[in-house]
Amino acid sequence: TVILVEDITEAKVLERARDEFFSIASHELRTPLTSIKGNTALIKQYYSEMLNDKNLKEMIDDIHESSNRLILIVNDFLDVSRIEQGRITYNIESINCLEIVQGVIHDLQISAGEKNIKLSIDCQITSPIIKGDKDRAQQIIYNLVGNALKFTDNGEVKVELRNNKNNVEVRIIDTGTGISADGQALLFRKFQQASDNPLTRKSSSGTGLGLYISKTLAMGMGGDVTLEHTEQGKGTTFLLTLPASTP
User: Is the pLDDT of residue 23 over 50?
Assistant: First the structure.
């Protein structure tokens, strides 16, 4: 019989210090980034007639887009920090899943239009009422649809809603690049992305935390996020399952 004893105190201290650093740094970064985003939005809205110089307009647009992307990254870090510290809370109530999907589709129509991608809803549902946290459900659906748009260059992204026994199923179906077998093994892991080339612009524009956060939040509400189907060059289907609200 061999008994190995290892002191992991230092490792735990380092892990806690890392988590605290991410949390503090994220909070400190979000305030100035929000200010930058807000000011550029005001410039675009109220001083557009002064942006006659094409290069200046492109720089303002780039600052606005970059600050928005950084805010999303910071929010991902904060969510992971809360998840790992057990500080995620859920306001569970009866909510309308169809209304949430419609809101997300409305918000992302401009992004879809810029890529000439058809973005639609296929509602095959008898009751859209689920038990969950409205903000968290919206966050999950927004992330899944946003990912589908990011990895789809032509065709469409469709959100399909169905009832299945005691659950409501939300499928996000795209005609994008698909995910390789190696990429599938990386899904739902922290800081991992399913792109075959980690240096591409598409994969480098995110943190690799979206699917990990989405799955964790869904499970916290009694549901799940899974990869239902994918085929390289033909598209991918992710399935979000949330518990239906019982009368």
Answer: yes
Residue 57 · residue 47 · CB < 8 Å: no
Average pLDDT value over all residues in the chain? 83
Whether the model clears a pTM of 0.90, i.e. scores above it, the answer is no
pLDDT tens-digit map of 48-101: 888 888 888 888 888 888 887 787 777 777 777 777 777 788 899 999 999 999
How far is Cα 152 from Cα 4, in angstroms, rounded to an integer? 51
Q: What is the largest CA-CA distance in the chain?
A: 80
Separation CA 138–CA 134 (nearest Å): 6
Helix axes 210-220, 134-150, angle to 10 degrees: 150
What pLDDT does 15 receive? Answer: 67
User: How far apart are the C-alpha atoms of 82 and 78, rounded to whole Å?
Assistant: 6
CB atoms within 10 A of CB 238: 25
The token pair that represents 15 in the structure block: 């892990």
For the chain, the DSSP string reads --------HHHHHHHHHHHHHHHHHHHHHHHHHHHHHHHHHHHHHHSGGG--SHHHHHHHHHHHHHHHHHHHHHHHHHHHHHHHTT------EEEEHHHHHHHHHHHHHHHHHHTT-EEEEEEE-S--EEEE-HHHHHHHHHHHHHHHHHT-SSSEEEEEEEEETTEEEEEEEE-S----HHHHTTTTSTT----S-TTSHHHHTS-S-HHHHHHHHHHHTT-EEEEEEEETTTEEEEEEEEEBPP-
- Is the confidence at residue 190, as pLDDT, over 80? no
CA-based R_g, the chain, Å = 20
